[in-house]
Design a protein that fits this description.
Elements: E1 6-8, H1 34-41, H2 51-59, E2 65-67, H3 71-78, H4 85-105, H5 120-135, H6 143-149, H7 154-165, H8 169-187, H9 192-198, H10 204-215, H11 219-225
Antiparallel strand pairs: 1-2
């Protein structure tokens, strides 16, 4: 999943472990007990929400359904982070209804089940690559070097990495480095140049440009915005 994505999953599809590369998760989880939730939604007269039908609609996929970040999903959720606490609970109820109404009219793509297959050995290798490059942020490796080091063909490595992590190795690492830098900016008083070096940037200007592209602010602006 990428930032801003929405995942719909039934208990029958749950796995035992979730991985968060930065050891951080910022989001909202909604869990529905269908039978009990149907009793609650009857209190909101006039809303044509059939939770049982929604459950059947998405459980038929037999695997998690991910809606990529878009303006509709952003509108539903982002406002929850800015409203006053005293009305947050009531506002959440409104947003849940808004989400359910959106899901009720959402069309599942006909080609949803068409996905590439990767051998277990390939997946294990790209996961090893991800662990290696995120452990050594000060170092930069070419795709050819990674392909040779982990004994995986270059094309297979690129395709499998994108299939597992949703983006290219380059884009993944840039976002990872900038999010790691954001954590250090929030949690330490280290010099910005030192932080840039720790995430693999010797040029402060290039670091600031990459940080703004990923985070939306310069490193200095980001640090000053933290209350």
């Amino acid at each position: 999943m990428k930032a801003g994505d929405l995942q719909i999953n039934g208990r029958e599809n749950h796995i035992q472990n979730f991985g968060f590369p930065l050891n951080h998760y910022h989001g909202i989880s909604l869990v529905f007990h269908i039978e009990e939730a149907e009793k609650v939604t009857k209190l909101y007269g006039g809303f044509s929400i059939d939770l049982a039908a929604l459950s059947k609609k998405f459980s038929m996929l037999n695997r998690p359904f991910i809606i990529q970040a878009d303006k509709v999903i952003a509108h539903i959720f982002l406002e929850l982070y800015t409203i006053p606490n005293k009305i947050k609970n009531d506002y959440l109820k409104i947003k849940i209804l808004e989400l359910l109404l959106h899901l009720s009219i959402l069309e599942i793509p006909k080609n949803f089940d068409k996905r590439p297959y990767y051998y277990k050995t390939q997946v294990e290798k790209v996961k090893a690559i991800q662990e290696f490059i995120t452990t050594n942020l000060e170092d930069h490796y070419t795709l050819d070097e990674l392909s040779e080091k982990f004994n995986i063909p270059l094309t297979s490595m690129k395709l499998c990495f994108k299939g597992v992590y949703g983006t290219s190795i380059y884009s993944y690492m840039r976002a990872y480095r900038m999010n790691k830098a954001a954590i250090m900016l929030r949690q330490t008083k280290e010099n910005i140049c030192d932080i840039a070096h720790k995430v693999g940037y010797d040029n402060s200007s290039k670091f600031a440009s990459a940080f703004r592209a990923v985070i939306g602010k310069s490193p200095k602006e980001y640090r000053n915005s933290i209350v």
